[in-house]
Design a protein that fits this description.
- By secondary structure, the protein is mostly beta strands.
- Helix content is about 10%, strand content about 40%.
- The protein has one domain.
- It has a five-stranded antiparallel sheet with strand order 4-3-2-1-5.
- The longest helix has 7 residues.
- Bound molecules: zinc ion.
- The site of zinc ion has 7 residues, from loops.
C-alpha cells in the first residue's frame, strides 16, 4: 500500500463505496476517530482511525497547502 499519510480536507477513496454510488470522501475531522463526508450525497460518518486506515483505498486529492 502506498502513501497513507492522509490529512484534513483530503479527498479519499474507500474500499467500499457509499450506498449512494459515490466513492469520494472528504476528511472533515481528524482525531482518535476520523469523520469523512460523502462527496455525492453529503452524508458523513465517523470511523475509528484504525478502521479508517484499514478501509482506505487511496488518497485521490491532497488538500492544498497554503503558500
Ligand atoms: Zn453518499
Amino acid at each position: 500500500m502506498e502513501d497513507k499519510n492522509f490529512e484534513l480536507n483530503d479527498i479519499v477513496e474507500m474500499k467500499k463505496q457509499h450506498p449512494c454510488g459515490t466513492n469520494r470522501w472528504k476528511i472533515i475531522r481528524m482525531g482518535a476517530d476520523i469523520r469523512i463526508k460523502c462527496e455525492g450525497c453529503g452524508h458523513s460518518v465517523m470511523i475509528p482511525r484504525r478502521e479508517f486506515t484499514r478501509k482506505l483505498k487511496k488518497i485521490l486529492v491532497k488538500h492544498q497547502e497554503q503558500a
